[in-house]
Amino acid sequence: MAAQAAQVATDLITAYREIITKTRAAGIRAYGATILPFGGSQYDDAARESARQTVNAWIRSSREWDAVIDLDSVMRDPEVPRQLRAEVDGGDHLHPNPNGYRVMAEAIDLGLFTISSVRPTRGRPATLRR
């Protein structure tokens, strides 16, 4: 199971890199969001948690994203970081409740979505201002 979970982490990072490349080629910024904790859910095991931590560490530190939205940090229980906080847990320890969706929404800097971050070019896809 550990080797399979590690491969999933590697595959996710590879897929995220492809998304970053394709969105930038289209003149769109690429924003990464960390994976929420799922401790206590049907998917909870040490190997999957290790894979989640690996992917989240890459999202936070790779510097490949134009911005990172750290949903894990606002949703996890500070006492048991592999679980959602009780006040945001939808009951299955995997999906947020309505309050959780509000918390996630409030964690997003809406300035990331302004049109000023994109410069249109005549006859070609928009390009990013850097």
What does this structure look like?
The protein has 130 residues and is an alpha+beta fold. The chain has one domain (2-128): Rossmann fold (3-Layer(aba) Sandwich), CATH 3.40.50. The protein is 42% helix and 12% strand. It contains four helices and four strands, in the order H-E-H-E-H-H-E-E. It has helices at 2-25, 46-61, 71-75, 98-106, and strands at residues 31-33, 67-69, 118-121, 124-128. The strands form two sheets. Strands 1-2 form a two-stranded parallel sheet. Strands 3-4 form a two-stranded antiparallel ribbon. Strand 3 (118-121) and strand 4 form a beta hairpin. The chain is flat, with a radius of gyration of 17 Å.
Q: Report the major sheet.
A: 2 strands, parallel
Write down the CATH topology. Answer: Rossmann fold
Q: Structural class of the secondary structure composition?
A: alpha+beta
Report strand order across the widest sheet.
Answer: 1-2
- Level of helix content? 40-55%
Portion in strands: 5-15%
Reading off the top of the CATH hierarchy, the class is best stated as Alpha Beta
Q: What are the secondary-structure elements, in order, as H or E?
A: HEHEHHEE
Count of all domains: 1
Mean pLDDT: 90
For the terminal residues, how far apart are their CA atoms? 42 Å
- Please give the radius of gyration in angstroms: 17 Å
**Judging by the overall fold, what is the CATH architecture?**
3-Layer(aba) Sandwich
Question: Considering the protein shown, what is the CATH homologous superfamily?
Answer: SGNH hydrolase
The number of helical segments is 4
- Ranges where pLDDT stays below 50 over 5 or more residues in a row are 119-130
